[in-house]
Design the sequence.
């Protein structure tokens, strides 16, 4: 079965600092991975996705993620945090049959001024 | 088309009542998904449609839950005899139904249900 695990339910950084949100996957087949962001009382917005075309994936709002097969990881990074980045972030893997998404438990990012 | 829409955005009901939620997907999307998100958790898959056909249902979808997509466009999710444990955010997503490496699901704003 495919699954993702997000390490750290809460991450706090200072404005301007590096953001690193961790995601590890488990899959017996090549995984296709996603990062979504959720602002309070809103739905999920796609940040970026890995589809095997390139291991370093660039997304919106300055975020990027690197697929590392040897580490079964797909960590999300941003060089410099902005106050507007404060939100909940979800890593997800798509199941080949039917295309449903399996989500991690989420990481809440706080940005301190 | 501005994206996936869901109505109502909020619903408060008493235990034992029935509730129905509606989702309008992006117009050209033939797949429609329902997820449930409880506080502090990631969304969990409930069911999905390919056009009007309901192709998969999660074990989370008890007999009290039913979903329809009668004409392959909008979908409804009904919960009968609501229980306090049904309190959650119900999210709808739609997609073109492409191969997994080409697929992107677009989410609506969700319907937040509170069962008293």
Sequence:
């Amino acid at each position: 079965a495919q699954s993702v695990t997000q390490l750290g339910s809460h991450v706090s950084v200072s404005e301007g600092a590096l953001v690193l949100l961790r995601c590890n996957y488990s899959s017996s087949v090549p995984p296709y991975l996603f990062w979504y962001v959720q602002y309070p009382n809103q739905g999920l917005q796609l940040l970026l996705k890995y589809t095997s075309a390139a291991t370093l994936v660039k997304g919106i709002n300055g975020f990027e993620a690197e697929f590392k097969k040897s580490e079964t990881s797909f960590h999300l990074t941003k060089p410099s945090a902005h106050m507007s980045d404060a939100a909940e972030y979800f890593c997800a893997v798509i199941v080949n049959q039917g295309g449903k998404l399996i989500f991690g438990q989420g990481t809440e990012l706080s940005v301190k001024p | 088309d501005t994206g996936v829409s869901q109505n109502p955005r909020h619903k408060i009901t008493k235990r034992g009542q029935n509730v129905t939620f509606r989702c309008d997907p992006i117009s050209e999307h033939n797949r429609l998904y329902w997820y449930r998100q409880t506080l502090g958790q990631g969304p969990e898959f409930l069911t999905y449609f390919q056009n009007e056909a309901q192709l998969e249902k999660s074990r989370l979808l008890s007999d009290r839950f039913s979903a329809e997509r009668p004409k392959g466009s909008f979908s409804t999710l009904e919960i009968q005899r609501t229980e306090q444990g049904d309190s959650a955010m119900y999210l709808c997503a739609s997609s073109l139904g492409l191969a997994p490496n080409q697929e992107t699901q677009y989410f609506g704003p969700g319907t937040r249900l509170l069962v008293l």
Notes: Chain A touches chain B at residues 9, 32, 36, 41-46, 49, 51-52, 90, 92, 94-96, 98-106 (CB under 8 Å). Chain A is about 0% helix and 55% strand. The mean pLDDT of chain A is 93. The first strand of chain A starts at residue 3 and ends at 7.
